[in-house]
Design brief:
- Two copies of one chain form a homodimer.
- Chain A is an alpha/beta fold and 338 residues long.
- Chain A folds into three domains: 43 residues, 434 Repressor (Amino-terminal Domain); 130 residues, Rossmann fold (3-Layer(aba) Sandwich), CATH 3.40.50; 127 residues, 3-Layer(aba) Sandwich (Rossmann fold).
- The first copy, chain A, is 44% helix and 18% strand.
- Chain A is built from 13 helices and twelve strands.
- In chain A, the strands form two sheets. The first copy, chain A, has a six-stranded parallel sheet with strand order 2-1-3-4-5-11. A six-stranded mixed sheet of chain A has the order 7-6-8-9-10-12, with helices on both faces.
- In chain A, α9 links the parallel β6 and β7.
- In chain A, α2 packs across α3 and α8 packs parallel to α9.
- The longest helix of chain A is centred in the N-terminal third of the chain and has 16 residues.
- The N and C termini of chain A lie far apart (74 Å).
- Chains A and B meet through α4, α5, β2, α6 and α10 of A and α4, α5, β2, α6 and α10 of B.
- Chains A, B: It comes from Isoptericola cucumis.
- Chains A, B: InterPro entries: HTH_LacI, LacI/GalR-like_sensor, Lambda_DNA-bd_dom_sf, Peripla_BP_I.
- Chains A, B: This is LacI family transcriptional regulator.
- Chains A, B: Keywords: DNA-binding, Transcription, Transcription regulation.
Chain lengths: 338, 338
């Protein structure tokens, strides 16, 4: 497939290269009919302005960047990221934008990648995920002339950048209230990675709401993997201090917890109640179907992409509440056994 | 963040811009010490050659492309793609390459995107997934001077391009043999999307092996979603012609099928045996744990990326068998009830 040039289009259309240039750049100098014929031939030949020429002229890369500072092997665990990426893509696809996805080792590498992307004009804007309480990425992207960015997370973590967030604290409080109202007096939380800002926000809401209801709250940390989710569940089920209800930080850990309970003969929901976070087809596929904090992650991703396009178009930073995850009560929660 | 230029580096290093250029392009003309100092300052300042300058000089985009011609909303269903992308990223990350991920409506749009990417030098090579029996992408990428490509699928579908594949036919035959040996005489297959080449290969192996064993084989098509997987399962469980074993085309449909069986009071594995394809943490999290055709999808993605780097480096096309999925027998398969 040879590279298509303006000369190729001119030859095929039987016009000068100048006429092609006028038509492609939407400038006066050619008739409407000629312009349309030239554009149609250009499309047919698969012509696209070279990235080089566009970059030199200050044009857009038509690419949005997303960096995940995670061990790539753990990415397959969670349906969250694929659904989130799918949502971003649903907005990008209508504009023929691409998503430049890169996995890096840590936040320093992520910061370096943003610098490189900015310098090489590889992307027009970036989506920043998993914000931390102190976050070098937010500091970098808040500089003057930085890449346009949208932070996916609580505005308190976004350092004045545009953010799109879900009210995780309110959702967590709703779950704890629901379990307390059912009569549970000792509740466990299978929590995620400690230095993620949203983990901390959920931790605080969990213990705070439990305390205010006179409920004992116990938190166990994991790496979000089903293996650690199952292990944390087994520890919550065992011994005299066992809990009667568990709230998980994602869907696969809840599913693994359900499996672990079945395995040791603990009945769900008669002996223990389970609540998943990030409702997904998996929660519906489980038996019993998992009670879950439900949130349309695909639509969340699409919302983030729309705000990024606004930002790249010159809009000022703002904070946008996407939604508050709502509790879908299904088969894995019930009053505790007497 | 201002754009870093060669002049900035020269100023900081106290040398001429010519010396910086020699050092950055690894050409003689500066001492080893000066070169190292310049490179260190360039790294510190976050300098990167502009994409524009690199493209004009024929340098690499340091980006690999992956296009998924699917409804973006269905992408969240399957853990396959996230694990596969994670595997690709594990190889890209070590080379500081990015993955340009784009979701398009259909194969025509995918072909157009390849043309645009090629013309604009957006990527150095592409990974082609879900090959069809007649595939316009393969035709395009087999042209002279086309983008380097690796097809993920059977060599019979790759049109002479480099391919990395798993022996799905052998894996399917193994499952059918295993179920036949257990005593099942009527087996169902919950199949995927019809025009995917691998769906056809599995269909043929399924019915062929069943026939040669004197086993009745019934195929139901789905769109890979858990909803359709559950629905197909309910139809397989109902009525006088019900099957006693079901082989699924992915993991979420098998999980949904397990849920559907529980729901209607059909015991697994006593009343019906279930086999999943694409073993995943979900299969282990289910109860009973799902018998599955196990295949390390993350390592498959990494293998594909390595072959693409070889191809981009000038290696000739070849076909590489990644592995044959192996049957992991767990809790959802047993002899049929008498």
């Amino acid at each position: 497939m040879a590279r298509i040039t303006i000369a190729d289009i001119a030859r095929r259309a039987g016009v000068s290269t100048g006429a092609v240039s006028y038509a492609l750049n939407d400038r006066p100098g050619v008739s409407k009919e000629t312009r349309e014929r030239i554009l149609s031939i250009a499309a047919e030949l698969g012509w696209a302005p070279s990235q080089a020429a566009r970059s030199l002229s200050g044009a857009r890369a038509e690419t949005v960047g997303l960096i995940l500072a995670r061990d790539p092997h753990t990415l397959g665990y969670e349906s969250f990221y694929m659904q989130f990426v799918a949502g971003i893509e649903s907005e990008l696809a209508t504009r023929s934008y691409g998503l430049l996805l890169q996995v890096v080792e840590d936040l320093d590498a992520e910061v370096q990648a943003y610098r490189r992307w900015r310098a090489a004009r590889r992307v027009d804007g970036v989506v920043v995920v998993d914000p931390r309480a102190v976050d070098p990425r937010v500091e970098l992207l808040a500089e003057r002339d930085a890449l346009p960015a949208v932070v996916v997370g609580d505005p308190s973590l976004a350092g004045g950048l545009t953010s799109v967030w879900t009210d995780d604290a309110a959702a967590m409080r709703e779950s704890v209230r629901y379990l307390a109202d059912l009569g549970h007096t000792r509740i466990g939380r299978v929590s995620g990675v400690e230095d993620f800002g949203h983990t901390h926000i959920r931790d605080v809401a969990f213990t705070d709401e439990a305390t205010s209801r006179g409920v004992q709250a116990v938190v166990r940390r994991t790496d979000f993997s089903p293996e650690r989710g199952a292990e944390a569940t087994r520890r919550f089920l065992d011994g005299p201090d066992a809990v009667t209800a568990i709230v998980y930080d994602n869907d696969v850990m809840a599913l693994a917890g359900l499996g672990a309970a079945h395995e040791v003969g603990v009945r769900v929901p008669q002996d223990v109640s389970l609540v998943a976070w990030d409702d997904s087809p998996l929660c519906l596929a489980a038996f019993p179907q998992l009670t879950a904090l439900s949130h349309d992650v695909t639509s969340y991703g699409a919302h983030v992409a729309r705000r990024l396009f606004e930002r790249m178009g010159g809009a000022r930073p703002g904070s946008y509440l996407d939604s508050t995850p709502t509790l879908k009560v299904r088969g894995t929660t019930a009053p505790p056994a007497r």
